[in-house]
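The records we work with from here on pair a chain with its fold. The integers have meaning only within a learned vocabulary of local backbone shapes. A complete example follows; check for yourself that the lines match position by position.

:::
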Amino acid sequence: MPRGRYSLHDPHDHTPLGEEHFHCAPGPSGWRYVSQITTPSGDHRGSVDLAVDELGRPIRLELHAASWQVRGAALDGVTWVRTDPTGTHATEGNVRAHAFTGTSPAFLVALTRLLRLTPDSPETRVRLVAFTDPVLAPLTVDQSWALLRSEAHATDNGPLMVDEYQVSALETGERHTVHIAGDVVLAAPGIELEDLETPPSVFP
């Protein structure tokens, strides 16, 4: 069960946003990721609990940030309920989208499980519902993903397969790369892996 810590920062001006302390593991029905997010000063800022099935579809999502809460799942596309800090107003949303996304590295791993790209795959277009900081506001985004290469890197625990993806934001044309090993993000815009206690899980 990989357990570790990511540092989060603004991908544009590199302002520190805090840290995400996580653990994750594949199981008989898919993969689950749980994390606690702290501010740069160490205060609690939110949490992520994401479970996907063996095909990578989100079967349960629970996000907390600034006393806002989102619960969602894949249902007629993706469906979610967003509750305000007072708990008195809940709004439901549904979009014909493939999955959810946000600032957590969990969403990047989950999407690669859904897409199952190979270096021979064409660029694949996906529609996602992003929950944006600081109040988990939903935003529909379109991206295209391509797996550029998979390379083995030598480590103390044997070779580690690292996948390099190219991600394009279709509305802006912005492109960036994401490096993932198993169920751990090694590097992505706004995300750095700072500490990892156990090696990444290897998906079948």
User: Anything to note?
Assistant: The longest helix spans residues 105-115. Residues 28 and 102 are 25 Å apart (CA to CA).
